[in-house]
Specification:
single chain; Ribonucleotide Reductase Protein R1, domain 1; elongated; 15% strand; 8 helices; Pantoate--beta-alanine Ligase, Chain: A,domain 2
């Protein structure tokens, strides 16, 4: 059999080299394709993340817009009826829903003077003795130790004098994680968890609020039946519910005296000096949505009783409250 010529071998060698070059080129193209695809995916992720960040920022702005809406509602309420606040007014509606482009906000406005202000136990309150008596009724009705009032008083007062059932720095500094008494008004009810046992704090918390005014009054037009009952330890919950039902059907009481003249309160000693028919402090709870992003805002508002102007005392963007019933445009729930 004849041997291949040198020319034939050269052709075969060149052909093999072209094959290797083609395979190398195909590998390079495949690598470039994978690399380009990865870059595009990374860019899409960056664009999506930037879009999410912008949507979140817009949702936050919607929440702040909701806060401003609440301020306007409360201002209009003052202009329409500055003499009293009651649960039949616009601000007290269970859900206030407003639609915006690609989203909306839900508002809930809560009268903070429908709860007992623990800062009224301060020595700076001229009606402190009545507040103490009310707190005693409150703890008694909840089957808690009435002596816990002195825990609040020792925490609030500026001295280090120990009350019989209270605690001061010495007791708190001896704990595993030491701290000192607040020696000032409570800025938030959650502070009470530092000196109350867990069960007492859990039971009391729904009835308490901490307002910067130690002389604030309970609004008889917004307090619930449990708070009404605690105005006197002889008052039954059924009687308190009857008072609340009558009140709400009549758009509130025009005066505290009218409240005290209800048949259920006849002959009972009620701390008149703790009661009013107007409110200055409100909590605004907001859930806002923009596209698929949500923002939560809890604001504490003070409304001046002499002109209706308002001031935001505190903002909290964390989700510190239970979501209330909500409905948003474009099918978002």
């Amino acid at each position: 059999m004849p041997r291949p010529s040198a020319e034939w071998n050269s052709l075969r060698q060149r052909s093999a080299q072209r094959g290797v070059a083609l395979v190398s080129m195909l590998l390079l193209v495949a690598l470039a394709t994978v690399l380009a695809s990865t870059i595009v995916q990374d860019q899409q992720l960056v664009i999506r993340a930037a879009g999410t960040h912008l949507d979140r920022g817009q949702a936050k702005q919607y929440a702040l817009g909701g806060e401003e809406l609440a301020r306007q509602i409360l201002h209009k309420d003052y202009l329409d009826g500055p003499e009293k606040d009651h649960l039949g007014e616009k601000w007290a509606e269970e859900n206030l829903t407003y639609d915006f482009e690609f989203g909306g906000v839900n508002l809930k406005i809560i009268d903070l003077q429908a709860s007992f202000n623990v800062n009224t136990l301060s020595e700076g309150n001229p009606r402190r003795s009545s507040s103490r008596a009310f707190f005693s009724n409150l703890t008694g009705a909840l089957f808690l130790d009435p002596g816990s009032v002195e825990l609040f008083e020792d925490w609030i007062d500026e001295d280090s004098e120990l009350r019989p059932n209270g605690q001061e720095d010495f007791e708190y500094l001896s704990l595993e994680t030491p701290y000192r008494a607040g020696n000032s008004l409570l800025s938030d009810v959650s502070e009470a968890a530092l000196f109350l046992d867990a069960e007492s704090f859990r039971v009391l918390k729904p009835y308490l609020v901490s307002l910067p005014s130690p002389s604030s009054l309970l609004n008889v037009n917004t307090i619930g039946a449990p708070i009404i009952q605690m105005l006197n330890n002889e008052l039954t919950l059924e009687a308190a519910k009857s008072i609340a039902l009558f009140r709400d059907s009549e758009e509130g009481f025009d005066t505290v005296e009218e409240f005290l003249q209800t048949p259920e309160l006849a002959g009972l000693r009620i701390p008149r000096e703790l009661l009013g028919i107007q409110s200055n402090f409100f909590e605004i709870r907001i859930i806002a949505r923009y596209r698929e992003q949500f923002s939560y805002l809890r604001s504490i508002l003070y409304r001046d009783s002499s002109g209706g102007g308002s001031l935001i005392l505190r903002r909290d963007f964390s989700k510190m409250f239970n979501s209330f019933s909500q409905s948003f445009p474009d099918g978002g729930d």
